[in-house]
């Protein structure tokens, strides 16, 4: 899991992914978009941890997207005919780039284990896309978030609006989107988008790691099911969700895990649970010949 942008460690079943370009205020350069989904998917698919914590370094969590991600927006060929074709393809190429960027944060939503964000300083522009794709968010007292895209003449397009509208009242979202103003940590907590606010980063990280440790002590299959059902309920009506959870538990509920959880609690010890299975690899051609 080597990366020029992230520092990654795994200890006590907790994976800690740290944005580690403080000299650039952790601006999201091309390596960010390549490395984050690769790291998250490896942790998830190989069942390397039960929880992911994402934190950062320097004065800001992240200054958002680096414009180099999109490259030049103009045609580069000197041939007029080729240049005309490049210009006609600009929209399709831009859409392809946006979908690639969107998938970077969707991997946090899709992974089977909880993802916690620990935010210091500013979560700016694209960083709001990142933190809203996490399961829980924690901030230091001076931290803030801002949908900054409006200040540079853009509509946020990498994931902020589909997710933040599930986390904040619509009028607040529109105010943030139309003005680009900063929402401070305490306001964010009061409105429910942030779980807790801490006086400084060290205190925050200690607290977030304690929460992650508590989550990691629970049955992974039950945590996976809880995340899957909560996300499903967010995007579907009550009737559909009730049907889905019934089907889910009919296939996934494990009596041995329930018994172990109850026994461990009564004996005041850590539970001995099964880990999530590694994601299935692509079938070899030989299996299709059977």
Question: Would you kindly provide a written description of the structure presented here, covering whatever features stand out?
Answer:
A hairpin with a 2-residue loop joins strand 1 and strand 2 (14-19). Helix content is 46%, strand content 13%. The chain has helices spanning 30-45, 80-88, 90-110, 126-132, 160-164, 170-179, 185-191, 201-216, 220-235, 238-252, 255-266; strands at 6-11, 14-19, 51-56, 115-119, 122-124, 136-140, 144-146, 183-184, 196-198. Strands 1-2-3-4-6-9 form a six-stranded mixed sheet, with helices on both faces. A three-stranded mixed sheet has the order 5-7-8. With 290 residues, it is α/β, with parallel strands linked by helices. The protein is globular. The two termini are 36 Å apart. Helix 9 (220-235) runs antiparallel to helix 10 (238-252). It has eleven helices and nine strands. The protein folds into two domains: 6-216, 2-enoyl-CoA Hydratase, Chain A, domain 1; 220-281, Lyase 2-enoyl-coa Hydratase, Chain  A, domain 2, CATH 1.10.12.10.
Question: What's the helix and strand layout?
Answer:
Elements: E1 6-11, E2 14-19, H1 30-45, E3 51-56, H2 80-88, H3 90-110, E4 115-119, E5 122-124, H4 126-132, E6 136-140, E7 144-146, H5 160-164, H6 170-179, E8 183-184, H7 185-191, E9 196-198, H8 201-216, H9 220-235, H10 238-252, H11 255-266
Parallel strand pairs: 2-3, 3-4, 4-6, 5-7, 6-9
Antiparallel strand pairs: 1-2, 7-8
């Amino acid at each position: 899991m080597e990366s020029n942008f992230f520092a990654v460690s795994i200890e006590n079943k907790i994976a800690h992914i740290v944005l580690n370009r403080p000299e650039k205020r952790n601006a999201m350069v091309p390596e960010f978009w390549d490395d984050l989904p690769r790291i998250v998917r490896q942790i998830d698919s190989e069942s390397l941890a039960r929880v992911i914590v994402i934190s950062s370094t320097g004065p800001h969590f992240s200054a958002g997207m680096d414009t180099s991600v999109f490259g030049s927006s103009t045609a580069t060929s000197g041939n007029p005919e080729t240049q005309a074709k490049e210009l006609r393809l600009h929209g399709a190429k831009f859409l392809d780039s946006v979908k690639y960027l969107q998938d970077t944060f969707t991997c946090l939503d899709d992974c089977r284990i909880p993802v916690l964000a620990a935010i210091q300083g500013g979560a700016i522009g694209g960083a709001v896309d990142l933190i809203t794709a996490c399961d829980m968010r924690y901030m230091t007292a001076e931290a803030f978030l801002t949908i900054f895209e409006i200040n540079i003449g853009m509509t946020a397009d990498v994931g902020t609006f589909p997710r933040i509208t599930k986390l904040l009242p619509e009028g607040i979202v529109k105010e943030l989107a139309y003005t680009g103003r900063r929402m401070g940590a305490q306001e964010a907590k009061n409105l429910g988008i942030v779980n807790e606010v801490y006086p400084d980063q060290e205190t925050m990280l200690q607290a977030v790691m304690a929460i992650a440790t508590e989550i990691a002590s629970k049955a992974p299959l039950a945590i996976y099911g809880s995340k899957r059902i909560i996300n499903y309920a967010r995007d579907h009506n009550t009737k559909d969700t009730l049907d889905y959870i019934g089907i889910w538990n009919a296939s996934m509920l494990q009596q041995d895990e329930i018994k172990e959880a109850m026994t461990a609690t009564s004996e005041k010890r850590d539970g001995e649970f099964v880990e999530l299975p590694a994601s299935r690899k692509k079938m070899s051609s030989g299996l299709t010949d059977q």
